[in-house]
Amino acid sequence: MNFNRKSKVSADFAMSSMTDLVFLLLIFFMLTSTLVTTRGVDFLLPQSNAQTVKRQDIAVAITKDLEYSVDGVTVPHSGLESRILAAAAGAEETTIVLYVETSVPTGTTVEVLDIAMRNQLKMVVATDPKK
Length: 131
Prior knowledge:
Elements: H1 16-34, E1 58-62, E2 68-70, E3 73-75, H2 80-88, E4 95-100, H3 106-118, E5 122-125
Parallel strand pairs: 1-4, 4-5
Antiparallel strand pairs: 1-2, 2-3
């Protein structure tokens, strides 16, 4: 009696189908991750019931006379960005709180918010709680 098999079972494992699956998953996650959008600047709306920021690293203030100050130091408009960057240097997750009087034009506020967005800093606008 001859019990030897004529066909041998191969112990090899075909990886081609596994690599195809990995590449398909990679493409899927790359495409879906680009669909997620994040807001560049997080800020609070005036007169809101939102919680106040517990952590305040840098305070930027704009008065009704359009005078700028960073942490209590008056700064000209041309030096505002460099002063904010100097104050935020070396700190991780710096939160900048923007104090703006109500008579300040919206365009001026947006210019300061744009400074934070360009430099990837988190900036919030300070508000009064609703009464």
